[in-house]
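[Q] Does anyone have a clean C-alpha cell version of this?
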Amino acid sequence: MPSWLYILRLKSGQLYAGSTTDLDRRIEEHYSGHACRTTRLDPPVELVYSEGWATFADARRREAQIKRWSRAKKEALVRDDIETLQRLARSREHE
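[A] Here you go.
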C-alpha cells in the first residue's frame, strides 16, 4: 500500500517526522490535535517535507532513520540541500 514519510515544523521550530498511509488525513489529525501528544502540546505550523514509499514498512524505516539524524541534517533534507546532507553524512562516519 502506498505510504508517506512526512516532516512537520512545529510552533516551537522543532521538526516532527512521521509516517502514514493517508497523508492528508494524518496531517489533518495533527492540525486538529488528535494525532499524538507531541503535536497536541506543540502544534504544527506547516508540512515541510514528504516522501512517497511503496509500503508502510518502508516509510516507517525511513522515519526511524530520519529520527536518528541531527537537526542540521533534517533541515538540509527539508531544504533539499544535497551537498550539506552529504557533508553531514561524511562527518558522522568519522566520529
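[Q] Thanks! Anything notable?
[A] The CA atoms of residues 17 and 67 lie 7 Å apart.
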